[in-house]
Amino acid sequence: MALYGAPVWVDALTTRNKALLRRPQRVIAVRAIRGYRTVSWTAATLLAGDPPWELQAEVLAEVYQFRSEQRASGERPSVDQVGRVRALAQRALIHWWKEDLGSPAAGSATVDAIRPHLRRWVNRQHGVLTFRLSQVLTGHGCFGKYLHQIARREATPACHECGAPVDSARHTLEECAAWDLQRRALVAVIGGDLSLSSVVRCMLGSERCWSAVTSYCEEVMALKEAAEREREAAAHADSLRRRRPGRRRRQFALLHPPQ
Fold first, then answer.
1. Which of 13, 88, 35, 210 is nearest to 45 (CA)?
2. How sure is the predictor about 1, in pLDDT bands with cuts at 50, 70 and 90?
3. What is the pTM of this model?
């Protein structure tokens, strides 16, 4: 719906209008990837394989212009001709998008991992993103670094499982000794290079590798989340860590007071 009439208004886009377009696109992309609401527009749209809407508007405008020129000359473009023009415009779009991702304002770890494989990522025929897989790909999730720096739920970014000074998505994927058993099963399928870019490349290579990475993330992140809930519920828990009731939970408590 956001792109209705794009050939008409695409040339009038301003910086402010682009920002307005990106707000709903980010919301949709975050929902599509099952990510945290704090995931940046750059990372969310990249994981969702949804190019910036202003670039998609350019593609629609190019196809429309080709059709208009053909009809103005008294010819009716065939489906194949329109398809070729659209395919060329889509390839140009991926090129423009890749250029735009060269200096991301946020989500640099996600961008660095996927940008080299952008075309394959967008055109892949297998693999879906789960809530826990998205946590590892974005770094926004049950990690000490995220809970400390962004969510303000931890006093330090340290790892509760192994005691490392920083618990990040990279640490969870590559280093944390608590997950050696799960990591060995993953390495047996995708190899020993667990850098995020290499993991993404393997995921794109086969459905088996994608499933292996997803299984690792699901199992490990589920265990981390369960441990985090126990720490939140502990009687001696730091006030930062205690679960904060959201609006719906507060409304439910008002309607159903404890007996």
1. 35
2. confident
3. 0.86
